[in-house]
Amino acid sequence: MVAAGGEVVSLRAVPTLVGAGYAGVEWEVVPARGQGLDVLVADLRRSAAARPPAPGVDLLVVPAALGALPRLVVLDVDSTLVTGEVVEMLAAHAGAEAEVAAVTAAAMRGEVDFAGSLHRRVALLRGLPVGVLDDVLAEVVPSPGADAMTRALAAAGVPVGVVSGGFAEVVEPLATSLGIPHAHANRLEVDGGRLTGRVLGDVVDAEAKEHFLRRLATEHDVPLAGTVAVGDGANDLAMVRAAGTGVAFCAKPVLAQAADVVLRRRDLTAVAHLVGAR
Question: Which of 49, 66, 83 delimits the end of a domain?
């Protein structure tokens, strides 16, 4: 079943939409940009009347145009590709998890400047031994379906990248372990085997994430209309808006309101289905 405008509508597929089958899962449907929800609901009703779905099959509905284009998927990392926030995991080792978590939450809601908030949080990590990065990497838990998603996308020849306001020291080996060839994140400054509480170079913020999406699209000769950007917070807004299909994944309201597709279940296999890779 598919929830649309407060109603539950059954369908398999309609000419202007693409459906991907799921068993026992409900997905929220949002209209493609420029399409009114009343039109979407009417299309779903017509489809349900013409061709009822198999029992127990639920559908994720996305703009159909994506299937005809070269594709590229770019994902955020913290609370998207993985279940937690790496900076908070590091802060736990410094005894500052609660303070860092409060700042992270405000940044993801779009209430404070991301770059400034990152500098504030990283400053609290000062003095941690660099080896704690390996400890945190071992603690990171990929979101359900992450491995299946990356394998399906690779098999379908869909390029994948991850971009994060977190830290390359964790993001890069994580990406490698999942077979993701492109990764971009902040790098922490280290002196004498300990974190200095500073990042090297410019912060990977919302604009940097959008630039990464556009750069990968150019490198792989994929039109922006064929790109899919997946994130959860305010610092993902720019790339989600720039992408042909922006996906809010278990996201804060500020991002969900701007996205084309809203996924409320933590299951990344939906992303592979979205681009037709299974």
Answer: 66
